[in-house]
Amino acid sequence: MADNLTIKDGALDTRILRATDTAGVHTPHHVIEFDGGAVTAINPLPVSMSSDIQIGAVEIKDATTDTRAVVGASGLYVDVQALPALPAGTNNIGDVDVLTLPALPAGTNNIGDVDIVTIPALVAGSAIIGQIGIDQTTPGTTNGVQVLASALPTDAATQTTLAALDGKVTACNTGAVVLAAGSAAIGTLAANSGVDIGDVDILTLPALVAGSANIGNVGLPGAVLELSASSAKTESANGTAVACGQYRRFAVLLDVTALATAAGDTLDVFIDFSPDGGTTYVNAAHFTQQVGTGSAAKLWAVIDSANPGTSVVDVTADAAASAVRPALFGGHIRARWAIVDDGDVDASFTFAVTAYAQ
Q1: What is the mean pLDDT of each run of 10 residues along the chain (358 residues)?
Q2: Domain residues for 15?
Q3: Cα(317)–Cα(289) distance, rounded to whole angstroms?
Q4: CA 20 to 30 Å from 31, out of 13, 176, 299, 328?
Q5: Is residue 9 part of a domain?
Q6: For the chain, what is the domain count?
Q7: In a domain, 92, yes or no
Q8: What pTM value is reported for the model?
């Protein structure tokens, strides 16, 4: 370089001296070493302060008194003691803790999340705050809730259909809903519609009209019908008719306890039903004929209309002896008997006829 000087050492060897030429004046360069190497930005020369140093508006003191700046391997650390006052406005320094704020003007101003301690009284009517659960604070009172049709799904009940529930649905203080007695309905179920919900226990029913009234498929307890009391009978006759319209099965017992002594004396016992209230009777069973010289006997006939068959039954005449027409039944039942004497006028048969009906 032009600034460098060429010199000779004691052995007359040429040497180059690094220098800076300033207006003809050469200033030699000096290399300062510290800690085994030249002082550079990577290997700086440490500075030890023995007195206060002031740089501009920043006061720096030594480390032995009141440290304001320390120079070390990582650089210069400065504590700022004071700053000029910030002018009013939006100036900010890092994170700022705000101790006080001016009063917020009335309106919709808000600061972060705000806990509202008190609110003014709500105006009666449609005033709402968010989602409000209605609390029934006084047992026995009701809170009316009106839901506009516009707030309901398209297939939901409207005010018009809900009006039918007015006065029929109330709430009690346990949270249960109580339907008023009478015509209260749930959903599409109308009162007295015959619709059943699950298993229903019926506590009371209106009195059934006397006769053949029936409720569904009700199993009634069997009834004993006395068609003829036990007695000695000497001539043909009809027994007393007994109402039996509520029954469809009959088991009839002919109990013969005494017979006449003549072989020509005979007894035929019949079971008849009336379909027209006792005006007309048709024969349903004809017990085996008993003769005067026979022995005591118990004969059993079952008449059950549960399996009536598919053929027409000719009831113009009585059934043959020992035959049963099980498909027959009616509103009244009776026993009938025919006694034939062989001519000596001493025919006598003691018997009873009893029916067990279901």
Answers
A1: 79 86 80 77 69 50 52 54 72 67 73 70 67 54 60 58 58 58 57 58 70 55 94 96 95 95 92 96 98 95 91 95 95 97 90 97
A2: 5-38
A3: 16
A4: 13
A5: yes
A6: 2
A7: no
A8: 0.42
